[in-house]
Amino acid sequence: MIKRIVALAAIVPTMLSTPVGVASAYPAPHATAAVVTLTYDASHAGKWADSIKQAVKNWNDAVHNVRLVPTSTPGSADYVYEATSGWPQTTLGPIFPGGNGDVQLGQQAVDQGYDVTRITAHETGHILGLPDHYSGPCSELMSGHGPGTSCKNAKPNAAEAAQVDKNYSSGTLAVRPHHHQVVIDIWSGRVPTASR
């Protein structure tokens, strides 16, 4: 009897094409018509290059309805990363193909001790349509500077990933913003915004 149970336990996942022992941050949503591909240009990001690669990987690993890929043709990207000397600021999306998003990776936040990959992943979250939530815990990427400089988490949590997937689901693709707001992450408490 035990041999039959063991054999059945080995065969059932194969029959169902379900991997055993692999868990996702959250289950994949129902299939959409197509995955939205957003291209980015990091040619003006300088020393932020490694943090961009990691932040993009973190987002691509967490979401199902949108894929972030580097552009092969600078100047044609849906959004750009650039190194600046000021505060981080980003176009608040969701940005769609043909968009004109801008992520300014500001050195002032780094000078205050904030983690470069967390900054980059947080600002990328704005491109994907997530607002700031500074009162959240470190496990919440969009809590930004709220948890302090000791927070190094650069991965979105399940709720953040689910919201991004909702932003890029087939039912919402027809509803696109007509103007963009720029979120300036002054990581000292004041958060002004401006319309573009």
Quick take:
This protein has 196 residues and is of the alpha/beta class.
What is the overall shape? globular
- Write down the CATH class: Alpha Beta
Radius of gyration: 19 Å
Main sheet strand line-up: 2-1-3-5-4-6-7
GO molecular function: metalloendopeptidase activity; zinc ion binding
Signal peptide: 1-25
Catalytic activity: Hydrolyzes proteins with a preference for Tyr or Phe in the P1' position. Has no action on amino-acid p-nitroanilides
Protein name: Extracellular small neutral protease
Ordered list of secondary-structure elements with their pairings:
Elements: H1 2-16, E1 36-44, H2 49-62, E2 66-70, E3 79-84, E4 89-92, E5 101-106, H3 107-111, H4 116-127, H5 158-167, E6 181-184, E7 193-195
Helix pairs in contact: 2-4
Structural description of this entry:
The chain has 196 residues and is of the alpha/beta class. It has a single domain (36-195), classed as Collagenase (Catalytic Domain), CATH 3.40.390. Helix content is 29%, strand content 19%. It has 5 helices and 7 strands; from the N terminus they run H-E-H-E-E-E-E-H-H-H-E-E. It has helices spanning 2-16, 49-62, 107-111, 116-127, 158-167; strands spanning 36-44, 66-70, 79-84, 89-92, 101-106, 181-184, 193-195. Strands 2-1-3-5-4-6-7 form a 7-stranded mixed β-sheet. A hairpin with an 8-residue loop joins strand 6 and strand 7 (193-195). Helix 2 (49-62) crosses helix 4. It is found in: Secreted. This is Extracellular small neutral protease.
